[in-house]
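Your task:
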Amino acid sequence: MAASWDHLGEIANVAQLTGFDAVRLIGMIVQAASTARLHKKNCKQFAMHLRLIGNLLEQLEISELKKHKETREPLEQLEDALRRSYILVNSCQDRSYLYLLAMGWTIVYQFRKAQDEIDRYLKIIPLITLVDNARVRESFEYIEMDQHEYTLDDDDKKVQDVIMNPDPSNTDPVVLRRSLSFSYPDLPFNEVMKKENEKLHLELQHSQSYLDVDQYEMIQHLMEISQVFASDYQFEKDVPYYPYVIDNKEQEYNKNLPVNAHPALRSGDNIEQHSEAFLPLHRRKICSPLEDPNDMKNGIRIYLAVVRSP
């Protein structure tokens, strides 16, 4: 199954991301991480690490790096790795929730692989390792020390065990509904499973194109689960509805997500704690909309301006 996941970039057409430089790609990854439905902790840890790299690259000015062959080639390799990383993080929002759960440890491995690859390319850019600038050297050393443990959350492990039950008819609908409540907060359970079934059809086509028999069989199993619940309307009224409520762990992850110039910030982000650490080191004004769904319903739109002192 890992082989098919390695083709993820081709599935999502990495070529569409051509033209974005490393700093812009990092901003896109941070934004995608903030809306991930699954692997939220992994996505946000990964995004925080990349923001450190983005801040370092901003000090060196990418346009200057690309003028010289010895720095242009490793930088292009870094950008290719970032494009694949964007597809990985974005997949945690767009793809079938059941599929992402079933592929849990494979995705964890891809996060580990992505960070190692990006850090490796960063180290071979000559100007970064040789530049005589104390602030740049300090930033580079901090990146090297910033290592994270990517893993599968305990709650996701429990749901993974449920959906991998060999008999789809014995799958616990209450556990599934609780897990899916964030992704589909307002839909009846049978309608949720219909949508999952549609997404799984696409995953099945992808697995066929890469001749991955193991993954094909796994997706068929997930489709059987979705069909069991989608076809029976009793689950609309019999399965308890669990409105999504942010838990303490996710609040902590949101606080640690770095400030970024492009994506919207959400309630719970600890701006005072992290703005100074992640602001680019040259003067810049960052104006980001703080968009909270509850605030938007009340017609409130808040803008946060963070300005570095001269």
Remarks:
- The CA atoms of residues 184 and 303 lie 28 Å apart.
- DSSP finds 18 helices and two strands in the chain.
- The mean pLDDT is 72.
